[in-house]
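# step 3/5: fold
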Amino acid sequence: MKIVSRIKLPIEKEMELFEKKFSASMSSKVSLLNRITHYVVNRKGKQMRPMFVFLIAKMTGNGEVNERTYRGASVIELIHTATLVHDDVVDDSDRRRGFFSINALWKNKIAVLVGDYLLSKGLLLSIDNDDFDLLKIISVAVREMSEGELLQIEKARRLDITEEVYFEIIRQKTATLIAACCAMGARSVMAPDEEVEKMRKFGELIGTAFQIKDDLFDYGNEHIGKPTGIDIKEQKMTLPLIYALNNCTSEEKKWIINSVKNHNKDKKRVNEVIAFVKNNGGLDYAVQKMKEYQQEALVLLENHPASPYKDSLELMVNYVIDRKK
């Protein structure tokens, strides 16, 4: 059995019902919108985020979930989908998970409006049901994701990202949404505040490990859905590159920065930068940091009694750093 299917096993029924509720939460009187949202729903990914919501809810709620859990998972997925639609416009990307992106098929103006629509649907789903505690969790995540994206753009211009700034960017850009999923799961079943915070932290740690793994793919040779060197071509400062920059001579540093800034379309030069990062311990350091975050996340599950939900969460934590794409 594939690992994602094994993770999903204890929440299979909930995920099936969630998909129906999620589709219903997108419906509109505008046929163009319904066509587009139907296209989005039929091209869903692994749905890791709702899986986090349900697994955490069941682990902290004695195996039970409720309507708030379903709404929380739907809000997360609506907001996440809205951010992906907007990201594709910002990045001028015409592909998403191997399919045409919404902006490629329906142009930027419609894509931006669809993203806005999904965002408002998510907010109203919470407001209409008085889930203000859940709304606060997701609103904080949306603010942080926007700040993280803008911080990365600001720093990319000067290529002066320290390790500390890097971790702040990925905490906001990637980890904050997974942290929101985990907090949402616990909060939906009325777990105590300290448990909600612990689960939020768990999500943040695993989200950080997830992003470091993504950074490592830029240096790998496996088939991972994106060619190597993409981050360098896009002038993105990732952890392996930052480590290599901090641990080389000033001459080498000048050469790397010049390569990333001015020669990022030169395939030979990009390959030389990749080789330099590998030879200077950048990958080993990133793997070590990723495993530290993974172990810290696992520790936060230790005090929970044995259950299929806890087993699935541990599988999920290990899958995040062992995945091949």
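# step 4/5: annotate
The chain is about 75% helix and 0% strand.
# step 5/5: archive (pending)
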